[in-house]
Amino acid sequence: MVTINYRNAAVKIAESVYEPAEDSFLLADAALEVCIDGMKVLEIGTGTGFVASVVQANRNIELTATEINPHAALCAKSNGVAVIRTDMFAGIIKERHFDIIIFNPPYLPTSDEEKVPGWLNYAFDGGKDGRKVIIRFIEEVSSHLKEEGTIVIMISSLTDIEEVKALMYRHGFKTRIIARTKCSFEELVVIEGKFS
Amino acid sequence: MKKDLMEILACPVCKGDLVLNIEKEDEKEVISGTLYCSVCNEYYPIEEGIPNMLPPDLRE
Fold first, then answer.
1. Domain ranges of chain A
2. What is the pLDDT of residues B10-28, one digit of tens each?
3. Mutate to test the interface with B, among A62, A68, A85 (most CBs of B within 10 A)
4. CA–CA distance, A30 with A57 (Å, rounded to integer)
5. A2-195 architecture in CATH?
6. Is beta strand B42-47 parallel, antiparallel or unpaired with respect to B50-51?
7. 8 Å CB contact between A20 and A49
8. Which Pfam families does this one have (chain B) (predicted)?
9. Which residue is closest to B59 within chain A, CA to CA?
């Protein structure tokens, strides 16, 4: 089994799970900037648990994660992440409990022909415009976030950055891009949204 | 799962409270068992330390 060592974390990678890539590293770095000791943190769709593991290894926080893919949930658990197998927020109380909610959503525009077979599709399929899952996240997230809580989400220029920022603004978030990097055919950005 | 995870778990259908039934645990956490929602009369399994909160028709 392959292990990735990054910023004091050793993360095991299983098959049929999204393998940490540029977006995962960028999000992990950005999440470390935002997370402060003592906070309650939730990661939605943790995959291997890479981002959660990096944050846990460097901050004294209370972290919980959700994941729908059974292979990914087991992988995250083996990496020491407190994972709940559920669809986004479904199995979590509707209380404003968390200081920070982190999400690396499926953000790629995906046609029916581009879908990946099996559970891995959940890691990629952002619907036709790449924003299908992000829209659901933004609509649901504030009922789980403390007042003045923060969300940290990873998207691509292919997802339409301005459209996602506008969506967040309409749901009460002040937005700021806190990390960005150019990849071959796209730019990856991490957007911080402060609820106010 | 650690027992204090109960603070944030809810039934995925009605969002109500759940009752923890432990089948196997070690000094750190619950390894297997169930979470029961009395309103929906539904059991959610805990396997290998992971609570499975998918509705029954989506479980494998």
1. 2-195
2. 999 999 999 999 999 999 9
3. A85
4. 14
5. 3-Layer(aba) Sandwich (3.40)
6. antiparallel
7. no
8. Trm112p (PF03966)
9. A70
